[in-house]
Structures are given as C-alpha cells and as structure tokens.
Amino acid sequence: MEQLKVGEKDRFVFAAAGLEHGHINGMVGGLLEAGACCKWVWDPDPVKVKAFLEKFSQAKAARCLAEVLEDNEVRMVAAAAIPADRCALGVRVMESGKDYFTAKTPLTTLAQLEQAKAACVRTRRRYFCYFSERLRSECAIYAGELVKKGAIGRVIQVLGLGPHRLTAASRPEWFFKKQLYGGILCDIGSHQIEQFLYVTGAEDAKVVRSQIANYAHPETPELDDFGDAMLVADNGASGYFRVDWFTPDGLSTWGDGRTVILGTDGFIELRKNLNVATDPAGDHLFLVDKSGEHHLEASGKVGYPFFNQMIRDSLDGTETAMTQAHIFKAAELCVRAQNQAVRLS
Amino acid sequence: MEQLKVGEKDRFVFAAAGLEHGHINGMVGGLLEAGACCKWVWDPDPVKVKAFLEKFSQAKAARCLAEVLEDNEVRMVAAAAIPADRCALGVRVMESGKDYFTAKTPLTTLAQLEQAKAACVRTRRRYFCYFSERLRSECAIYAGELVKKGAIGRVIQVLGLGPHRLTAASRPEWFFKKQLYGGILCDIGSHQIEQFLYVTGAEDAKVVRSQIANYAHPETPELDDFGDAMLVADNGASGYFRVDWFTPDGLSTWGDGRTVILGTDGFIELRKNLNVATDPAGDHLFLVDKSGEHHLEASGKVGYPFFNQMIRDSLDGTETAMTQAHIFKAAELCVRAQNQAVRLS
C-alpha cells in the first residue's frame, strides 16, 4: 500500500493533452496521488477542458498543444485521444523530448506500431500505456504477486471476461467508427492481452483465433458488440478472452470482469468489479491451492504501485513499471487479433 | 421436482452391462428413481459386479452379455464401457432390440458414429447418452428453462469451464491410453459441447479451433491434462470451453465447474458443484438481467426430469428427453474437436 511520493528534488511535472475518453481522469489522478504535478491541460474542446479544470484545479489551460510541448519543465504528457490518433500524438510528444502516457488501447494499426517503435529509438523517450483493468485493480496486482511467488505453480492458462456497459447515448461519435476506435479486440481487448502476457510472463504470443460480431446493434453497424480470441504464448501457456458491450442494466457496476488463472498447482479467480449478487464492492480474489479454498479481499490492501514506478522509470530510465517491449507486444497482438478476426454476425 | 413414476402397466426393465466407469451408478440410480427396474448386471470383472450388487441388490448377475441381450423383458441396457468400446456395445444392444444408454462420451471415432447412426436406422432403437454435467445438474436444467423463457434474450455465447480432479492412482489403465479414452476433448469435453448445443438451440456447429496439452503429467504421456475449443453454431452463437485435470487438492469437490451464458438482455453464471470459498453446496445460478442481480439456489428445486423423459421416449418413440440428432451431433463435434486439436505441450 506504500506510495513512494516523488520527492521535491525529483519534482515530476506532467500535462494532460487529449481528453476524449474518461480514462484521462484515472491517469491524472494516479499521477497526482504518486506526487506528480499537473501543470497544463489541453484539448481542442473547451467544454472538456473546463470539466477537467473543475476536477484538477492545479492545472492551467494551454492555448495550444505547442505551448505544452515547448515547456521544458513538462516531463510527461498524459492523453486519452481518439484511439486512431494516439500514436501520432505520442510521436509528437516524444519528439518534443517528453515521455508519453496514453490511455489504452495504445494504437490501432501495425503501421502506427512501427512509427511508435521508431520514435522511441530515435527520441529515447517512452510510450507508456495505462492498462487500467490490471494497473488499477488491486486484486489483479495481488494475483500477479501470488503468481510470481509460485502460489499456483506454472501458469498454463489465463481466461478473461471483459464485459462492458454500452450506454450508447453517452458515447462520442468516434466510438462507433471502426477506423477511429480500432475494433473491440483492439480497444477493450487490449486489457485482456496485456494481462495475458503479464500473468504468463510471456514475451511473445500468437493469436490463433479471433472473432468479432455485431449481434444486437444494427443502428451502429461499425460497433463490434462482441469479440473473443485465443492466444498461445511462446512459453506454451494458452489464453482465451471474451469482451462485449452487453452488461445488463441490472448489474450494479459497469461490468462483471473476471480473470481465471489456471496453474499446475492451483487456480486464481478474480472478480474485479463486484462479487455478483453478493457484494457490490470489487477486488475479490479466490485462490484454490493444495491447502484449501481462500477468499481474499484485496481492496485497500495492495495499492497501485504502477504510477510511482512509471514516474521513476521516466526519471531514471529504468523499466520497473512495465517494459517498452511488453507494451508494444500487447499493442501488436491486439491489432493482429482485430485484423485477423472472423466476423460472426 | 415432480417425478412421473413409470406405472406398473409400463413396467420398464433394464440391465446394467459395462461397469468400467463410476458414472454407471448415477445412470442406474436415476433410472431406479424414475421407477424403472434393474433386472441384470453384467461385466467381465466379477469384482465390479459384486460392488454393483452391493449398491443395487435388486439386480442379478448375468452369466454373460448374451443372457442379458436375449431377455425380451429388458428394454434398455445402461453401460459405462471403455469409451472406445461404447459404440460396438451399443450396436450389439440395439441389434438385440433394446435401447442403449451409455455414459458419456458416447463414442470416440467418426467411423463409430457412422456405425451407430446406421444401427439406429436399421434397428429403430435409440442410442441415449448420459451427459451428466447438464442432466444431473439442477442449476443447469434451471438455466435451460430460463433461457427458453427468454430471460436473457438471444443467447450469443456459452462459456464453460470443466476442471476435474485427476486422482491418477484411482484410474484404470484405459484412462491413460488415448485410443481407449478418446482424448480430453472427446471425453470430458463432450459435456461442454452438448451443453453448448442445448443452450444455444443449435442443430449444427463448427469447431473453429481446438487445443490439447499434457502440461504436467509426463509419466502418462497419452493423457491430455488440458484441452480447450471454440465453436460457432449454425445460428451465429459462439462457444468456448476449457477442460482440464488440474483441480487442486484443496478444492472441496472434484471440480469448480462453471457455465456462463451471455445473452443480448442478460447473463447467467452457473457454479455447478460449489460456490468456491463460500458454500460447499452446488447448484448456484446467478442471473443478471435488466432488473438486477439474482442469486438462485437450484438445489432440491428443479429435479432431474431426464430419466423419466428418457423412459417415456423409449416406451413411446418420442424424443422429449433428447433427440437422437442432438446426441449424434454432440458426439460428432467432440470427435472433430479432438481430431483437429493442435497440441500445445
């Protein structure tokens, strides 16, 4: 639970630029909790900027993106742009000598991936991504610790369910245009693929089958309301995930996200956002091993070490929070899963 | 819960022949509860026959299989033979003018499937199969009723987890020989495939990806300790299931079997054998729909209508319990899933 605040001598100044998705609030909040300082906010839409400043009053509205990028005090730009624009923004940020911290999905095409990789090499800056369904989930972080300790032996499969509530009326136009949001496997599937790589400890994997569908939303034909995929990691572990936009109105939260990690000596089930029909609070971890069945409530016990680690990585050139290779491999696999998906409906 | 006992005028006499798997006890028990009469038991192994007679004292040990098959009073033969032998036994039973009731998996090769189909046509008898993970699961039966009533709208995906405890020392030799047990997708995968067809109401489906592995049992190299598969039904619904032999010693029962049924208007989760770390009793059904989250305990409330229905089907020539086409389609898909499986480890 310990949050190593960034000390005054390491004062870490960042800006928020790109407020298209609400994830920006979690990203900024996490950075502030870790002791960073939000100097600027920028977005072409003044309504979004105003709403941001109401939440984060320490920031100041920039007149243009250049004003942010030209400020040498700013070390990182956090952004939740339209998914298809995330890479271009990231390259521009890195070209200005700052690290980039984007909402997931990190990017939407293989061409963008090459541009992002090249920009990292050229600028020596970092392209961080906020995979919030792991990084902002105490039970998921705890599961990672247990797996690393060998609590369930060798991980042989990771299964993820990532249902989300659509609330179509609240969504911007780009949300329904495939070229802009990237498709469901690329978008919310990115959480799942990142978790799969993390939990299995794999450096590479193949998407061996992926599927998309629009089962029930003919009014928005470019929306994938369903997607699933199977992956096989370079270490032999396998993965399956399903993502969808079918969370029913009666669920007390936005989605009954689950992860089941099967090991040779036990298994872990995460009920991330609630324990359905039992407890509206999230962060439930169920561990079954040789000794018995254990229900561990991780909320408030584990914390979110990612933000501190990312700031230290940015300051020190380390890769503690997440390696660049891991982020780009996750990005690559979501794009591949989407590109090769068979359409079911 | 009402069990329509078979009346005296419809006295339903059956025999048990083939005691290789403990499923025979559930099959015979279910028939007896439904009012049938077990006249004979036969198995080449006198030890198994003795153990059977201790449980079911109304039966009499036959001297040979022919003695059972030549008895015109016997209308059905229930059997849990070695999987690879189930079809040949079934054909012999049907040739003798009786219906056949086999433990799952119904058969292990496509050639056997053709023989079984031809025998059904030739003899006009039936080849029933006991898919116990649905038919002996009150929550699964209840879920079927809810789905039929439209409680979750159109079913778009069925996801099944079928972990089992290995207890290798208790298993017979055939259990570890692939040609005899048929492979994990054909064997315990058959429950999953049958449920998928049932819940989606599909008449046909394609196995679009299937995988097997032996991750942790090098001492029995022909054992698949892991398998999974994706299916797409003729009505556009999709399915995924995972089966494995990795139930940890600490679990209070043989496996934490789950089924998640995703519909356009809600979802159902079944925790069939226990509510892990919460309740050792099984038959938990979680329904989330427009109105809220509901935890329904199905145990003792739904019963097992299958056995009565099967007896009536046998007596009346109806197909209420299960159509022959459904049984053979499930059989075909498990064999195909196994035959085309990619080996991961």
Overview of this protein structure:
With 345 residues, the first copy, chain A, is of the alpha/beta class. Chain A has 2 domains: 8-132 and 306-316, Rossmann fold (3-Layer(aba) Sandwich), CATH 3.40.50.720; 134-303 and 335-344, 2-Layer Sandwich (Dihydrodipicolinate Reductase, domain 2), CATH 3.30.360. Helices cover 31% and strands 26% of the residues of chain A. Chain A has 11 helices and 15 strands. The first copy, chain A, has helices spanning 23-33, 46-55, 65-69, 86-95, 110-123, 132-135, 138-148, 178-181, 189-200, 306-316, 324-339, and strands at 13-19, 37-42, 60-61, 74-80, 99-103, 127-130, 155-163, 205-213, 226-233, 238-244, 258-263, 266-271, 284-288, 293-297, 342-343. Chain A has a 9-stranded mixed β-sheet with strand order 14-13-12-11-7-10-9-8-15, covered by helices on one side. In chain A, a hairpin with a 2-residue loop joins β11 and β12. Chain A is globular. At the A-B interface, β7, β8, β9, β10 and β11 of A face β7, β8, β9, β10 and β11 of B.
